Amino acid sequence: MRLLEKGPDPKGCRELRCKGNGVGNTAGCGALLLVSPRDVKSFVSHDYGGGSDTNYYFVCPVCHAETYVSYSTFSSCR
């Protein structure tokens, strides 16, 4: 038997690349990582007009750089 196409992971994991330039503005190492929703962290930033945005990111286990991800990356898994 041969695998023709990998189906969605039941735990909601995604293959994502470490790009860095997130919260610490550190360049990433380019590692391809299997990231689950529980690996994603968030913080809220506020602007001068009183609005706020929630930012999502994961920390690379290789170089410790933080890479931003969009909410929709894992929204189908929740």
Helix content: under 10%
Q: What is the approximate shape? A: flat
Which regions contain 5 or more consecutive residues with pLDDT less than 50?
Answer: none
Radius of gyration: 15 Å
Give the N-to-C terminal Cα separation. 32 Å
Biggest sheet architecture? 3 strands, antiparallel
User: What's the helix-strand series?
Assistant: EEEEEH
The number of helical elements comes to 1
Beta-strand content estimate: 25-35%
Total strands: 5
Q: Which structural category do the helix and sheet elements fall into? A: mainly beta
* Assembly form of the protein: single chain
Question: Which strand order do you get reading across the main beta sheet?
Answer: 3-4-5
Number of domains: 1
Which labels suit this protein?
78 residues; mainly beta; two-stranded antiparallel ribbon
Would you give an account of this structure?
By secondary structure, the protein is mainly beta. The protein has one domain (14-72). Helix content is 5%, strand content 33%. It has one helix spanning 72-75; strands at residues 14-17, 32-35, 41-46, 52-59, 66-69. The strands form two sheets. The chain has a three-stranded antiparallel β-sheet with strand order 3-4-5, with no helix packed on it. The protein is flat, with a radius of gyration of 15 Å. The relative contact order is 0.28. The model has no long low-confidence stretch (mean pLDDT 84).
